[in-house]
Sequence to fold (141 residues):
Amino acid sequence: MSHYENHRTRPISVGRFIRRMALHALVALSLIAVSLFAGMAGYHHFERLPWRDAFLNASMILGGMGPVKTDLSEAGKLFAGLYALYSGLALVAVMGILLTPVVHRVMHKLHWDDGEGDKGERGPRSHRRSSLQHIQDPLRH
Fold:
C-alpha cells in the first residue's frame, strides 16, 4: 500500500489522492478475485459442481445473498459454512481498504491549517500553543 503522509505535512493533491484510491481499489478487487476463486475451487472440489455453478454459489455467498445449492454433502456443508464466515471478514477487509484513504484525507484536512490563521504559522492545529496557554502553564517549554 502507499505510504501515508503524517499530520505535519500538507495534504496530497487531488491527482495523487485519485491515484491512491485507484491503488486501494486494485488491492480490494484483487482480494475479491482471490476470494471468489477460492470459493469456486471449494465448490468444484467438495460438491463436484461445474465451474459455472461453482461461480454462482461462490459469488452469491461472497455477495451476502446465500448459496444457491443447499443440498450439500457433509464436507460441502463444512466448506460452505467456513466460506460464508470468511466472506463476512473479507467484506470488512475490503471496506477497510476502500475507506482508509478517504477517512485519512478527511482527518488530515480537519487537522491541517494552511497558515491563514494567527502569526502565519503552518502545520497541524494540535501542535500550536497560544500565548494564553503559555501564561497558564509557565513551566512548560
About this structure: Residues 117-122, 126-135 have pLDDT under 50 and may be disordered. The first strand starts at residue 112 and ends at 113. The chain has one domain: 14-136.
